Amino acid sequence: MSSRPGEKLIGIQFGRAVAAILVVLYHGGRMLPQYLGKIDFAKYFTFGNAGVDFFFVLSGFIIYYIHRSDIDNPDRLSHYSFRRLTRVYPIYWVVSLLGVAIFAAKGDWADLAPLHVIASFLLIPEAQPPVVGVAWTLCHEMMFYAVFATLIYSRPVGISVVGIWALFVALGIFVPQSQTFLHFLEDPYHIEFALGALAAYLARSYPVRIAPILAGLGIVAFLVVGLKFNDLSIEHKFIGRLMYGLSSTLIIYGLAVWETRGNVGYPRWASYMGAASYSIYLIHTFLLGWMGKVVARIIVPGSAPDLLYFLVAAGAVVGGCAMYQFVERPLQALVRNKTSFSFLEAARSRL
């Protein structure tokens, strides 16, 4: 059964799932050869790390699309903050505890230095990757949320903060900084949040009839960049973020307008996969490693490695869906219940 067209922008949700699966295939191609032998087909997904570019553009789109009316309305700040924090942290902390347990079981105490663990749990940027390696993207995400919060608090203050942030990013292209926080602040990935917000603005203000064509062009451009120019995107980070960012912007704008005009519908499983994408993203490297080791003990290395590569990647996706169904959804329902929100509102009213 299909959902009603344009109801929840399910096409955008499903795009998030596709991006998560690309990241799974990318990491599978890097992690699994030690267990399965040479994987020839993995070369077609060496650009899967660009799923992160799509995530960042999509995040900019969603936040502006949903919260545009909250800008310059400080009464909405507590609601916005509560929704963002409960979206990111609860399941992330669960996976982080798993990561801590794994490091402790290995006796890898260097990665469990107290200050590092605290910074990882709070998503404070460091030179060292977080306990959950893929969570480096969440550090950027939280900074974007914080910057958008200043726009909700006050449009003039927010515009000033965005301007200063943009200046740092621009200067970083020509004069990169070595200090950890400044290096983080100037990262070209941040351009993609702005591109996503632009896509949301255009989708609401200037929907065009050729949106499906633009989405198709964006998909083709994304694949061309990935298959032909991915090395360039790695060597020249700013150029890479522009190429992947602009193609992702076309995809997201086109899909959003196409769906809101009521011209396309999606099956329910597409929405489900999009909702599960965060759990898939957080847990997939653990699952790839565990399943790779299991398969290596059962199958002789080098036996149908391409097939096993896809099977293990599919298993990681299924495992992520299971975590969403049995951990993330109940946990988010718990922390977002009316009691929790009422408590937050009461606390805000006493300030």
Explain what this protein looks like in three dimensions.
With 351 residues, this protein is mainly α. The chain has 15 helices and no strands. Helix 3 runs parallel beside helix 6, helix 4 (77-106) runs antiparallel to helix 5 and helix 10 runs antiparallel to helix 12 (237-260).
- Any idea what the shape is? globular
Number of helices: 15
Query: What share of residues are in beta strands?
Result: under 5%
What is the domain tally?
A: 1
Write down the secondary-structure element order: HHHHHHHHHHHHHHH
Helical/strand content category: mainly alpha
- Approximate helicity band: over 70%
* Rg, Cα atoms, Å: 21 Å
Low-confidence stretches: 1-7
Q: How many beta-strand segments?
A: 0
Q: How far do the termini sit from each other?
A: 48 Å
Tell me, rounded to a whole number, the average pLDDT. 92
Main beta sheet, described? none
Task: Record keyword descriptors for this entry.
mainly alpha; globular; disordered N terminus
Topology, element by element:
Elements (H helix, E strand, L loop, with lengths): L9 H22 L1 H4 L14 H17 L9 H30 L7 H9 L13 H18 L1 H20 L5 H6 L4 H16 L5 H18 L1 H6 L1 H24 L7 H31 L6 H31 L2 H12 L2
Helix pairs in contact: 1-3, 1-12, 1-13, 1-14, 3-6, 3-9, 3-12, 4-5, 4-6, 4-13, 4-14, 6-7, 9-12, 10-12, 13-14
Short structural description:
This protein has 15 helices and no strands. It has 351 residues and is mainly α. It has one domain.
